[in-house]
Amino acid sequence: MTLVDFDLQFKEILVGVDEAGRGPLAGPVVAAACHIPPALYGHEILLQIDDSKKLAPAKRARLYQELTKLPIIWCLGYACSAEVDEINILQATFLAMRRALAKFNNQNIFVLVDGNHKIPKIRHPQQAVIDGDAKSLSVAAASILAKVARDNYMHAAHNLYPHYGCDGHKGYGTAQHIAAVKLHGACKEHRKTFEPVATICGGLFV
Q1: CA distances from residue 133 to 63, 75, 93, 164 in whole angstroms, order as listed
Q2: Which domain holds residue 47?
Q3: Are 76 and 32 spatial neighbours (Cβ–Cβ below 8 Å)?
Q4: How confident is the model at residue 206, as a pLDDT?
Q5: pTM for this structure?
Q6: Nearest partner of 141 among 86, 68, 80, 192, judged by Cα
Q7: Could you tell me the CATH number of the domain that includes residue 54?
Q8: Is there a domain that residue 52 lies in?
Q9: Does 80 reside within a domain?
Q10: How many domains does the chain have?
Q11: Separation between Cα atoms, residue 135 and residue 2, nearest integer Å
């Protein structure tokens, strides 16, 4: 079954939701909500869409640019590192998803959300789809939008905090990143409840 075939099973107005950034030591978790009108399903750009994790960074970035030029409806939602620390990463992910869906609040839609958790506190009917970014066109498109938007955010964070190398590892816990935290301490983009940042910094942050 193709990504398009999966979405064509549904008669409702579909909005796919996915996130990026649950695992890193630094930066926000970013969610995207994306509706692709069925009239576009055969578009040459959409035929190239796949789970963002399966795409090379350069192709992912190109598809992001092409997607955002199409007459699709999409929105991003962010939950910052402080919110991750305050309410935990799962709840911060749901928060980012609700923020991404805010653009659709007054519309009658059906939400397909990647993973095995439904999004709490939304009024829309929804279905959680395990590996949704590899099954659904709308979820796969959302995965690209969320991933590239987060990568862009981390590139901008690198300009403020260049010694961490976030333009390369995007906040994930690489050896280089952990060594930089040991040397320089942590900044406001770091998640102070995530290990090994919590242990290295002992609760002291710059």
Answers
A1: 15, 17, 16, 30
A2: 3-161
A3: yes
A4: 46
A5: 0.95
A6: 68
A7: 3.30.420.10
A8: yes
A9: yes
A10: 1
A11: 7
